[in-house]
Amino acid sequence: MSGDDFAFLDLPAIEAAPRLLGCILEREIDGHVVRAEIVETEAYDQTDAASHSYKGRTPRTDVMFGPSGHLYVYFTYGMHYCCNIVTSGDGHGAAVLIRAVEPLEGMEVIEKRRGRTGVETTNGPAKLCRALGIDKRMNGHDLRHAPLKLVVQDALSESAITRTTRIGISRAIEKPWRFYITGNPYVSKF
DNA sequence: AGCGGGATTTTCT
DNA sequence: GAAAATCCCGCTT
Fold first, then answer.
1. Are A46 and A184 in contact (CB under 8 A)?
2. Is the dihedral of CA A28, A146, A135, A151 positive or negative?
3. Closest Cα partner for A97 from A168, A155, A157?
4. What are the pLDDT digits (tens) for A29-71?
């Protein structure tokens, strides 16, 4: 796939989130290539009390208001990074949190970076950032380019996707804006 | 398997 | 000063 593969990221986050399932993150790190399939996502947008962008544009959330297809990385709990893919074009303050990925290539590199094996390497938003070497320096990165690319795949069928409420938030907990590939062992919580 | 607490720092009230 | 889009360890069933 090529060209305007990223066009769907100009849709609202709630529509882009399920569409990102099955897409691949390709990372060049430590002289190796690591590839992982996105298996769990959550949508956040400016009308949403749980979103970092809810209260408007700030230095922290600046990237969420920028062009789609870029990476929004935030730091939390004093030690963890989590990453989002910015959606809906300019000015809307929306993004999709990547909550879990399934390693496809470079598992040795991932396990070494994590100090864990199997599903424990990437079944959570901060875990996968550690595994793929995503931190503050990656904030704002355009996913069209190395060393971290989003490789868009065909949309999964609706029957392969489970939709539920989001995890780890205290506001707008009722919104069913979490999506995951049904039965995938790398999903953070069933 | 499940619960409780600690780590540790940025951001907002 | 408190909360935070979390993770890991240790203790109890």
1. no
2. negative
3. A168
4. 989 999 999 999 999 999 999 999 999 999 999 999 999 999 9
Location of structure tokens 């809906």: A88
- Nearest nucleotide to A80, CA against C1' atoms: C6
Which tokens hold the place of A138?
A: 């990656």
- Residues near strand B (C-beta below 7 A) are A 55, 58-61, 75, 77-79
Tell me which CATH code domain A5-181 carries.
3.10.300.10
Strand C-proximal residues of A, range 121-180, CB below 7 A, are 124-127, 167-171
Joined together, the tokens standing for residue A166 give: 């989001």
Compute the distance between CA of residue A76 and CA of residue A117 in angstroms, rounded to an integer.
Answer: 24
Say whether the CB atom of A57 is under 7 angstroms from strand C: no
Q: Are strands A161-164 and A32-44 parallel, antiparallel or unpaired?
A: unpaired
